[in-house]
Amino acid sequence: MAGRTLILAHGWRLECPRSELEPLVREWLRPAVRAVPRAMASRLRSCRVLLQDRFSNPELSALWVLSEDRLSVELATEGVEPHDVAMECLLCLGEALWQRVRRLERDGWLELLRREINAGVDGDIDEDARSAKRRLLLSSASARNPLRLKRYASISFAGTAAEYVHCLWHDVSARTEAGHLPAEWLRRRLELFARWFPPDRGYRLFARAAKRAPDARD
Hints:
The structure is a single chain. The chain has eight helices and five strands. It is α/β, with parallel strands linked by helices. It folds into two domains: 4-98, Zincin-like; 103-196, no CATH class. It has a five-stranded mixed β-sheet with strand order 1-2-3-5-4, covered by helices on one side. It starts with a strand and ends in a 22-residue tail after the last helix. The mean pLDDT is 91.
């Protein structure tokens, strides 16, 4: 496997420099990419994923570049938990996907964010989105700043896209403590993504509701 180019789901390619990374690819990256809906993958077109030990900037864990016909993603692996490497990959896909959203999707996303803010929802999908939301809502003038709104919209979209695929990939427990999205608002975001990018056959966004056991008195 060392130094080979591997084929992932959707015809995407992964460059793996060392055989020691085989478990990461087999157990984490392959299943995560396989869960990406075809409707989402087709929007991103061709994708190349490159694994490396680290970046020259130790603060970086991932980089991506989107061209007209290809997305290139680089992921640091040294000292990073395998699940986190896969999530960084999904986050890069979400960030790139924002560059390819259609006008109706962008408008729909902004409308959902406005409804959340008007409802007083101060939590968000991850720390980056929470920070962007706090900066946006520092003042009424800040809230009207189109650049801050655009940045918050893109960050929250990317994080939600990653979490959407995460939920398709395997069972996920929603976090409801302070700073996180309330369950009802998280569900609205995920259902919106499911309308835009429906899960492929064999994948479900939410677990089936458990059937009530028959009552002996029925």
